[in-house]
Model the fold of this input.
Amino acid sequence: MRPMAQIAMVMNLDKCIGCHTCSVTCKQAWTNRNGMEYVWFNNVETRPGQGYPRRYEDQEKWRGGWELNKRGALKLKNGGRIKSLLGIFSNPKLPEIKDYYEPWTYDYKNLTDAPLGDDYPVAEPRSLIDGKPMKVEWSSNWDDSLGGMPQHGDLDPMVTKVRQQAADKVKFAFEQTFMFYLPRICEHCLNPSCVSSCPSGAMYKRAEDGIVLVDQDGCRGWRKCVTGCPYKKVYFNHATGKAEKCTFCYPRLEVGLPTVCSETCVGRLRYLGVILYDADKVTEAASTQDEQALYEAQLGVFLDPEDAEVRQAAERAGIPYDWVEAARRSPVHTLISKYKVALPLHPEYRTMPMVWYIPPLSPVVDALTETGHDGEDADNLFGAIDTLRIPLEYLAEIFTAGDVEPVRASLNKLAAMRSHMRAVNLGERPGREIAESVGMDGPEIEEMYRLLAIAKYEDRYVIPTAAVGDARRLEESAVPDSCSLDHADGPGMGGDGPFGQDSGQKQLPLVTIENFHAARKRQTSDDEPEDVREQQ
Amino acid sequence: MKTLLWGALPYIAVVLLVAGTIWRFRYDKFGWTTRSSQVYESKLLNVASPVFHYGILFVVVGHLMGLLVPERWTDNVGLNEHTYHLLSLFGGTAAGALAVLGILLLLYRRRTNAPVFKATTANDKVMYLVLLAAIVLGMWAKLAHSSVSEGYDYRQTIAPWVRSLFTLQPDVDRMVGVPVLFQIHAVVGMLLIALVPFTRLIHMFSAPVQYLFRPYVVYRSRDESQLGARPERRGWEKSKL
Done:
């Protein structure tokens, strides 16, 4: 056993309203630069839909991820090392910018500078790639909320797969259609094919927290990682000629803050926490013959932090104590391994992704109620899950390589939680059989309800800081590390304080009282802080 | 002039190449890339780029063979001048033709594809000019002085001069009778070598051979010095308010 720690994410799709706040705040934080106009480290796709870049899930075309060779060993789908080097002078499987979309701006100057004429001046779209006028025809979410679905719906590779098995399941007629939102970031995989594709060795997985990063000084712009990633979450910066990708906001995680996309999520649907896994088992699990068994195989790689043996091994492996403690309280571990309601995205790519999803259940209650049934009765709900508007088969193609059982089990648990909690809220005594029918008990369901529905800030994000020994230094402070007498300009040496010379009055340097722990406490506590109340 | 061109210029070029590469490695690792334009245009590049690169690689191998292997050695293994000439003429011309075809396609693409042209810098243009000149002059010199029966035997003149450079006693007189086209090609070639570290040509030194020998997944530890608040600035780095 070789335990390693990984910071992972779970997204509860039931709560996603497709507002794109995560995408926008991520864009503001990370990709609002030249050369990255077309890049969204975080994007929200409407499913069914083509995704971003278009049809990225069609691995026969884009050759991302891993496959098994004849001997049953893992091999990069785009070819091994020698083939990769021989073909290094170009990359035929690289998506062009138009597979994402051509970025544009508007010629606003024309609004004020246009010569006097009969027509109102307009701001024409201009391409950010060649500067010429262009016709805006696609973007990162052009088919948002099923826009243009009769035209584009059939282009979803997962729709094609589902139709091969159950032709009548996916319909795009207005009355029968369905949709849900799928926010996507880098999966920070345990077996990353982008890292494995990088000829320069510039991409790496951080040993401490499993975050996959690109060393900008080491990247030589070969573009193999873009092809290697089956989720197409490594992007080519066309201004600098280097690869860039989602960083999991590591500067924030290191000081115990959630990623920007999590922090700003309106639906509070993202969970962050530590998962301990056995690095020795990763390759074996990723080589599992049966694609549908990959989900279970990945569960087998994760370690149970409640197990004393695991904790000892983690300590021997140098994982800090507070990380192991964080793993015990990890909401991600709870949702993935304990409740088993979260599922991986496309496990069949064999990269062992670490951003998991709770499949969406929502429309079912309303649909049942409309048909005159009691929408929150457990039996009605369980029966309805197989005839959901969102077909189980479609969800299974996305989350479990086509195996409907884990999806059904997850949805059943969510349905059981609704029934159980309705009874609780109505002051009834919830029947034990509801919880037992999904292999849980009452208190456990109520715990899950607290995590999924109440979803308090400190329950959603359990993030240990990068170095507990450094924690004090990391706190925001106006007092420098060294003594202010040590350097030439310090107040003690006759220099000026933070307010300049302060009319000649020498005072002690000011210290910000509110460090980020205080800020967090203020953010997450229910009560208004007293000093605020006093001011009012 | 003779000494400048054949006695000094080669060393200047090599010094610029080595010193420039070290400088670039130390101060511009971030810029060490070709700034690929494939995301703008893929179809033509997928043909032209491999054609050019494989062509130029064979051309380089041919140059190394012709310049560094003494005629005596090939004679000893039973390869006479005429056979060698035919090998050099047909093999070299084939490789050269590939390189010329490739670079012409790449230049056509760079000029006609608007996004690619827009991403081209002045530095790139200088580099393309010198690179194209070196390749075309080389082909021209070779073909102008060759027929199937016999060709100019540079292994009596240019090759010994090149080898004499390594002993730091440049035999500049060897270059005196050499046809002008070969002389120009050699000078442009040295210019190209000097330009390598200062242009996108630098990417030739990042051929990722280590990829064949490393494990697939790379792990790195966090840089401990990057944790925590940034250290106090030194006195001279502080701005005066």
The two ends of chain A are 58 Å apart (CA to CA). Residues 476-535 of chain A form one domain. Chain A touches chain B through 64 residues (CB under 8 Å). The CA atoms of residues 93 and 426 of chain A lie 57 Å apart.
